[in-house]
Every structure is written in C-alpha cells, then in structure tokens.
# Entry
Amino acid sequence: FFSLLLTSIMAGIGAGYDLYPTTFSPEGRLFQIEYAGKAADASGTAIGVRTVDGVVLGVEKLIRSKMLVKGSEKRIFTVAPHAGMALTGLLADGRQIVNSCRDEAQQYKRFYGQAIPGKMLNQRISSYIQYFTLHDSVRPFGSSVILASYDKSGPGLYMIEPSGVSYGYRAVAIGQEKQVAKTELENLDFTTITSREAVMEIAKIIYKIHDDVKDKEFELELSWVCAESNGKHEHIPEDLLAEANKVGKQNLEADQFGSDEEMEI
Amino acid sequence: MPQLSDLIGSFVDDKICYDTGYQAPSQPATHTTQPIVTGSSVLGLKYKGGVILAADTLGSYGSLARFRDIRRITTVGKNILVGASGDYSDFQKIQELLEEVVAEDYCLDDGRTHTAKEIHSYLGRVLYGRRNKMDPLWNTLVIAGVENGNSFLGQVDLLGTQFEDDTLATGFGSHIARPLLRNAYNENLTEEEARKIVLDCMRVLFYRDARTIIKIQ
# Structure
C-alpha cells in the first residue's frame, strides 16, 4: 500500500492508473504504453526514407564511451535478405523484436517458398508487439522500430510503436529529435528522390539535428535496400558512408556560417 | 417425453463409432525406404588453390531418363559447393536448409560466414539425425570449398558417415572413377589439369554407367 501511495504522489497525471498496461485511465488512456513510448524515444534518432527505387535507413548513434569499439553497437539489423530494421529506445527490447522478426521471415519462407512481403512482415511484428500490451505479466517493448523492405510490390517503409500501432510511411523518424527530423523530412520530394540522394539527405538531417551540447559525439549508421543493392538489405558501402559523413558535416558548416537566420542559443 | 438418447440413438450405438476418418493402421508407419528420382555420380577433385566438382544433369526415374537438365550441384554462399547423388527431392530439402543457413549468416552480418568444413559438419549431423529416426535423406553429398587458399573436400552419406579426402566419387563413380582420380591426383594440379582429369572420368562414366547422360555440370 505504501508503494502504491508513493507512486500516486509521484506520478502526477498517471495517478494510480499507470501501474499495469491492463488498466485504462478514466479518459481511456493506457499510461504504461505511453510511458513505453517515452522510453522508445530516449535514444539517438533513427530515420527512414522510402525512395523511388528502395528504402534508406539512418541512425544517429550516440557514443556513450570513448572506449567503445567503433561499429560494435549496431542499431540497424538485417531481418531477412530483403528487409532491415532500425531500433530506438531500450536496445535489448529492440533486439528481441529483431529476433522474432527473423523467425517470422524464416517461417514464411519455409512455408511459402518466397520472401515474406514487407506488408505481411509488418503485420506480424505489430501483432507480436501488441501482444505485450495485453497482459500484466509482461511489459510493453520500450523500443520503436522502423522496418524497411523491398519485395515484388516495390519498396516498403513501416514504423511500429510500442503500442503495436504501425503505418506505412514515405519517411519517418523516431527517437530523441524526431519532431525536428520530421520537419526536415517534409522538405524532401518523395516522387523523385533516389536512394543515393536519400543517403545524403538523411546524413544532412542527422548532422543538423544532433545536439552538440547535450550529447558529445555520434556515429552515423546508414543502410539501404534498393535496386542498387539488388534488393538486398545491407549497410551502405564504405566509400558512400564516408561521403555521407562529409556531406553532412559540410552542410552543417554551411548552415552555421552561411545563413542569415538567427542562431539558436 | 423425448429423451436426448432418442434423438441421438439413430447414429450412436454400441456397434458404430463416430467416423473421424481415422483408421487403425494395418502396417506400421513407414518413411523413405527407396529413392524415387535419383541422380547418379558426383566427382570431386582438389587442385592447388581450389576444388572442382562434376556431375551429370540427369534425374532418373528408375530406368527412365526422366529429367534431363537438373542441377545436382548447388552453391552455398560465395565459396562453397554441395553436390548430391541419390534422391533428388531429398536434395531439394537439403538445398532449402542450406539456404536458411546462408540467410541467417547474411542477417547476422558479423563479418563471418559458415566455412565449407562447418557446412560439412552440419550436413553430417542432419543426415545422421535423420538416419537415427529411420527416415533418411537418401543422398550422398559432396561438400567442396576454399578457405584462405586451402581447399576442402568432404563427403556425407545417408547413414551419416562423414569424411574428407583429396578425391571423391559417389554412386557408380565410387567404383569406376575413384581409382582413376586417385591415380591422377597430386598436390600441385592446376585447374586445367584437374578439369581434364574430371572430364575424362565423366566420359568413362558415361560409357559405363547406364544412368547417365552426356550433359554435365
């Protein structure tokens, strides 16, 4: 009873209806799921863009320690040869989602002899994630995922939240700076953008939204699944990654020193 | 007053059971006892810096030369070959398993893929496991690959027997071609020499083995 009292005092809005995902609040909200959403946004931003010939994923990987081996913390995973996933939030939760996604893709291939279409994979993963919002013996995933796929019907980009809700997108951002990233993404022309162009645009956006004051350094991780990669999901080639980093930095410098807009303090 | 037993009495009584479609088996359940569509020999020969495999493209249906352009050697990843003689449908199942191994490697994306030796072990365990369940995959497989410039050549059969050698031949070829390959083998064979030796052996097999055709892979 004491812990319950403590929680009600500290919770504020939640006030007792936020103990289990199986309790609705009087306004009809499920607070645990909303809090899971907050956990999912508590890491570096991830961006996905669907282009005319594929999908590009980019992640702002915040480097938490200088002693980390470069490239050892992956935030983008291949779930099937034709599909990839970018994570935010609690990465351990996210990796579970990746594993179950890989299982789904493998089972579908075993049964139907074909690569699982992106739409179906999205549905299955959404159902899986939503399952964890139905029981008080488990907790919702604290991770949002962006799913990129390339199948017979073309490129597909989906984003699944901890609530299990998912939509298809032309471009999407999740993580810390998702609002800023979304505003930037709205400037892109999705009817003509190619995957190579999208790589550069995402790099520029991530460099722009990165908060130098709050977080020290970051590493850019980019992947694509497109015509150029023969429909296979892979991290972009080394030289393209180097170029993307260069373009991102140059664009940032041009912005800082060249623009007439007021600088944010 | 009508009883429930009156209503159902017409189709349930002591002598008649519900027809669920299940019939007590008159014989015990059986599994693969014979191969149906079969492939003949597969030859393997190591040379300096590589391995060469050869097989004809025939799928025999008993004595009928039924499928005349099937592929009995498959690639696994970038530098491994697996060839099969024996039942072709079982080989197709093995191909699916190998595809899953490759897909898993691709997904993990950790800079390392399965080597030929590992695939050899894997297939050995799969085949041995099936043999112990009295439901074998009726094949003799040849696994070939190159790692760091070293050639690998190994065989696994339907009993789960696993071994490596410098020269291999399965099926009819194990009787006819193996001595020819062994005589011709030396450590410093070039690719052209190896190719010539293997082609000669395939020619002899075409002369002598009734279940071959002229087209080879």
User: Anything to note?
Assistant: Chain A touches chain B at residues 74, 77-81, 102, 106, 109-110, 232, 234-235 (CB under 8 Å).
